[in-house]
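A brief tutorial aside. Many learners find it easier to grasp structure tokens once they have seen a single protein encoded end to end. The record that follows does exactly this for AraC family transcriptional regulator. Read the sequence first, then the structure, and try to relate runs of similar tokens to stretches of the chain.
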Amino acid sequence: MPPRSRPCLMGPLRVAPCRQPRSDLVMTILSTIPGAVPQPHSQLTRIERVLDYIHANLDQPLALAELAEQSCWSRWQLQRVFLHETGLTVAHYVRELKLSQAAEALLSGRQRVLDLALCYGFGSEVSFSRAFKQQFGCSPLAYRKRGLRLGLRTPLVRATLPQPMPARLVQVRIESQPGFILQGVKGQIRGLFAAAPDFQQTVPAIWRALRTAGGLPPGQERVGVVDVSGAGESLPYWAGSVMEEGASLPAGLAHLPVPAQTYAVLSHVGPVSQLGQTLNWFILHWLPSSGYRGVDGFELERYAPDFDGNQPDARMEYWLPVAPL
């Protein structure tokens, strides 16, 4: 059942020119350590050195031996620690960042595919197109023609949250979401940055009202929608699910058209009571340096059908509407 707390946010992301790529996206290490003066985690500190080097040299060939020197680990140790901390191999991480920057360049510039292939270290247009299709499911030209930011990946940065939370990796990505119709119930909340926030109490009450109305179809994703288009402190909040095309609206529920939008997507792992801390960092620290701007509209919360916000490994996604600067 969806959680006890729900904030709302706003923010951006950034594109780097091909010649000096610095990804317009950011994947984040959300890491906090108990204590007033936390000591840095040595593994993460070494990984950060490697990440800084990768991010500064994405337009160069990056050999594993070269990266190992930055970490003071052997190549074998670096590969295993990197995989443990990020869930990615070094080669996969470098490749997905290069391809994400190339994808952004396809949408925002007029470079030829061959020029982008050479800029990001691929030996030929053929090898670049093959790798691009593996990551994005279509050719570079098809991606450009579609004109949507889909599946863009982000670099890793370290973030320190205000209260102790388990160290973990969270990836911010950019996704274009088609419009849909939400069926559910509506209430009013005062969100994360209100003078007197009450979302900790009001959001669970709205989800309980939805359950009472029989509006939680079994096996279907749960979606929370925060309407931040107004100027007041009180925000409309919807709890519900996506209405299937051609379906009739169940009795006792209302519907909300949600337009197509580009989003920055943040995964939150942990009790939902800590979601506010994650989103606070996302808005105040990550977004201002991302190269995107927040736009007024609908912020989304997405939960699996069996979501339990009290569990330490609970996972959900917050979708923040953004547009490139």
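Self-check: The chain is about 35% helix and 25% strand. If you spotted this yourself, you are ready for the next section.
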